[in-house]
């Protein structure tokens, strides 16, 4: 089968609430009739012979891994048969996706499960999962002839958008909260040449201003309300299934912030089952920080009937979000896959992050909510010891070194009500030793460490 083959997939937009199917989307990607979000669906799939042949589709995707074509080398565009069609000449790719799946033996013991793996989306070109959606949505902006793209962000979306805009010769506008975003992320958007505005508000305040802006200016919105973002991010789940030889795990666990990622992974799972690429659905569970838990409360307190926005606060700044845009999409996939929601404390997050680090993997704080959540889901019995679990790690450890250094020095919770409880995590802390520059001091440190190991 030729590896360069592309299929004109017929994609349409549909409102997730009222079912309207507009011919095109407005600047804010919301339904003109009812204001809810739009999503892609694919009426053309039923008539496509390749899509009714799962074995051929799988081997087409596998063969592309040996191709030297830029699109085939991308872990997103390699799966383009399941995405809306964007002509190759508009594709902006940094060879995103292709992220590793790692075993986590120590974390497995800590969580009380036998089979625990992590798909590390922090191993993308700008070091977060955002690149998989951004390659596709930035390409859609290019196709649309936009000069400016824009996003509100807690730091990772903006880093990713700035990189892809630069690669596609577009200008980018970043709205981020002033403070409460990591230096690593901020520095990326500066280096990639974005116009970076730190607004004196939080992420939710930035979103509001951006929504007003796109109604007045011809800028292309690249937040995850943009359905092209969701399509690109679907490929993480497709790639995961390929890595697992199309044998789904029992559980997939993701962090929940604005809830685009969980929506995308869930959409991919449902579509893969529809196309018979997989025969059963993993349960998709969503974990939030306790201080930024509007979706947890939506499900647990309000039975999914409403989402009450809140003022969010957590040291996991990536998910410091009080009014998640995609909550209805996430709720649908949570229910369709039979997943669960959980909330985790700041200390649980910090502990889980250090445990993932101790497995030689590392991640940023928001990603570690997955392991912290798994421990709770194990304790509640929702996850059984013999079940297989995949955590989605969303960002690289180097995104937020401040958090890591403070944790290991024992400063992370200094002066907070959590300080006494934080002592429980002391056994994971590895503060640097400041020693005199002589051999004896280093040997003494080595011997002491050996005695304590
Ligand atoms: N993990 C990381 C590292 C993130 O950066 C985000 C979101 C999430 C998890 C949550 O994903 O929003 O799809 O539910 N970061 C966004 C940003 C909001 O602006 O970078 P979600």
Mean pLDDT: 96
Biggest beta sheet summary? 6 strands, mixed
Number of contiguous helices? 16
- In order across it, which strands form the biggest sheet? 3-4-12-9-10-11
Which small compounds were modeled alongside the protein?
Answer: ligand F0G
Low-pLDDT stretches are: 1-7
Strand content: 5-15%
Descriptive overview:
With 453 residues, this protein is an alpha/beta fold. It is built from 16 helices and twelve strands. The protein has helices at residues 54-63, 70-73, 105-111, 130-143, 156-167, 183-191, 203-216, 227-243, 260-274, 294-300, 327-337, 346-358, 365-379, 401-409, 419-422, 439-452; strands spanning 12-15, 38-41, 101-103, 115-120, 148-152, 171-177, 195-199, 219-221, 251-255, 283-289, 341-344, 388-393. Strands 3-4-12-9-10-11 form a six-stranded mixed β-sheet, sandwiched between helices. Helix 6 links the parallel strand 6 and strand 7 (195-199). The chain is globular. The chain starts with 11 loop residues before the first strand and ends with a helix. It binds ligand F0G. Residues 128, 130, 153-157, 224, 255-262, 318-319, 364, 366-367, 394-395 line the site of ligand F0G. Ligand F0G binds at residues 128, 130, 153-157, 224, 255-262, 318-319, 364, 366-367, 394-395.
């Amino acid at each position: 089968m030729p590896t360069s083959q592309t299929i004109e997939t017929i994609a349409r937009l549909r409102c997730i609430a009222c079912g309207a199917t507009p011919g095109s989307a407005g600047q804010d990607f919301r339904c003109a009739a009812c204001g809810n979000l739009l999503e892609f669906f694919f009426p053309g799939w039923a008539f496509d012979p390749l899509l009714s042949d799962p074995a051929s589709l799988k081997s087409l995707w596998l063969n592309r891994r040996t191709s030297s074509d830029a699109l085939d080398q991308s872990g997103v565009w390699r799966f383009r048969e399941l995405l809306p069609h964007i002509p190759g000449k508009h594709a902006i790719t940094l060879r995103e996706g292709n992220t590793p799946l790692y075993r986590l033996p120590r974390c497995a013991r800590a969580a009380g499960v036998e089979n625990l793996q992590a798909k590390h989306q922090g191993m993308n070109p700008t070091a977060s999962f955002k690149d998989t959606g951004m390659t596709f949505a930035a390409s859609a902006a290019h196709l649309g002839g936009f000069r400016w793209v824009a996003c509100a962000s807690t730091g990772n979306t903006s880093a990713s958008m700035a990189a892809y805009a630069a690669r596609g010769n577009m200008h980018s506008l970043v709205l981020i909260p002033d403070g409460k975003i990591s230096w690593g992320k901020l520095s990326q958007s500066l280096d990639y040449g974005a116009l970076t505005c730190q607004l004196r508000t939080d992420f939710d305040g930035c979103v509001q201003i951006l929504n007003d802006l796109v109604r007045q200016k011809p800028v292309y919105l690249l937040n995850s309300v943009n359905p092209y973002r969701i399509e690109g991010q679907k490929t993480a789940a497709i790639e995961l299934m390929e890595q697992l030889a199309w044998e789904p795990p029992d559980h997939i666990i993701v962090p929940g912030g604005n809830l685009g990622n969980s929506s995308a992974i869930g959409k991919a799972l449902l579509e893969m089952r529809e196309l018979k690429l997989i025969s059963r659905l993993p349960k998709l569970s969503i974990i939030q920080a306790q201080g930024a838990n509007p979706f947890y409360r939506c499900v647990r307190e309000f039975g999914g009937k409403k989402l009450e926005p809140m003022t969010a606060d957590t040291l996991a700044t990536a998910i410091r979000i009080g009014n998640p845009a995609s909550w209805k999409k996430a709720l649908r996939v949570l229910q369709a896959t039979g997943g669960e929601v959980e909330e985790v404390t700041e200390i649980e997050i910090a502990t889980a992050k250090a445990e993932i680090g101790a497995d030689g993997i590392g991640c940023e704080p928001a990603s570690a909510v997955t392991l912290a959540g798994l421990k709770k889901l194990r304790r509640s019995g929702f996850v059984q010891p013999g079940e297989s679990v995949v955590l989605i790690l969303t960002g690289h450890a180097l995104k937020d070194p401040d958090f890591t250094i403070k944790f290991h020095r024992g400063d992370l919770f200094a002066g907070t009500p959590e300080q006494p409880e934080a002592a429980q995590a002391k056994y994971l802390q590895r503060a640097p030793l400041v020693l005199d520059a002589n051999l004896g001091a280093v040997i003494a440190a080595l011997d002491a460490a050996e005695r304590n190991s």
